[in-house]
């Protein structure tokens, strides 16, 4: 039976990588592939432009909080699967303005769950319908250096408005399974990197600042640890969960790859120092000289690490990318795609950048 998928946030970083992965892996499928995205600052039609020619694909500009639009799409496109990426996704923006995070991440997820419940019930609750809610490791809070990694049963302890709003949405997705029997799935993933990531996030921000000769703002002492996963590995994990997991299941996804921020910044400096000149681009300043320690992020989580033994054991998924190779490919991608990122350095972005980094 064909899957007719609604991919919310499919014009963002992970969503667009997932749509591309999905279309590539279902080449002759008659299933619809519908992206619903508000096309805000992080949602970019260019991220999915190469898919526009496919008849089964459509990009709909709209808000997940718009109940009548969501209901209309579910009915018209005969959607039987939602993969829900849409969110306000950046911790620093959630500190500057938390309201949008509660609206999209909590109210938006609730709107989607309600619309899908009505749609699923109207079809007499087909057992193959799925609602996969994409979430984050940040809902589990912060680890000390020697703490064991997060498992699926680690109690939630979100510390930022972003992670608190994601936690709220996870609880709603869970409740819809337990209360209504709606076939929801939840994945909690660690930090992603790879092509099409918006420049506000650590890795692309450092790449672009090196190219532009701007300071590399390292928060606090730079010793915070994240568990980095290539976005392609995240895509295969989501598809694996979608195909194999039982309704109500929760899976942690991660890279078994804990790295300190400062080590990443050093790696990026060295990769850019090597690759940019080789591709005919002169760097204005020696990259490591740009490193600048700045005031820490309020409430900055010290360490994230995912225990992924459940998905490895139950579903046979594990990450395929090696971080060194993945990071090199990512740096090459940003060097080769100036036409993609240059327009993103808009007045809105410059205003955000000045507000966040101006007084640090
Ligand atoms: P992103 O910010 O690049 O993309 C989010 C997308 O959602 C954008 O295209 C945006 O336009 C869209 N969107 C925002 N509000 C919307 C609304 N009200 N209606 C419709 N669309 C809306 O983020 P991302 O990094 O691709 O993250 C995608 C999902 O994965 C999020 O749910 C995030 O919490 C989760 N996640 C991200 C990471 C990571 O490292 N980036 C890790 C784990 C989980
Ligand atoms: P980020 O990419 O924002 O992801 P998250 O906060 O969701 O983990 O940041 C990754 C890490 O890098 C985090 O510890 C904060 C740090 N960081 C900096 O040191 N400087 C920066 O300019 C940014 C954006 C992040």
Automatic annotation (TrEMBL):
InterPro entries: dTDP_Gluc_deHydtase (IPR005888), NAD(P)-bd_dom (IPR016040), NAD(P)-bd_dom_sf (IPR036291)
Presence of keyword Ligase: no
Biological process terms in GO annotation: nucleotide-sugar metabolic process
Keywords on record: Lyase, NAD
Domain of life (superkingdom): Bacteria
Cofactor(s) named in the record: NAD(+)
UniProt catalytic activity: dTDP-alpha-D-glucose = dTDP-4-dehydro-6-deoxy-alpha-D-glucose + H2O
Family membership noted in the UniProt record: Belongs to the NAD(P)-dependent epimerase/dehydratase family. dTDP-glucose dehydratase subfamily.
Protein known as: dTDP-glucose 4,6-dehydratase
Organism: Phormidesmis priestleyi
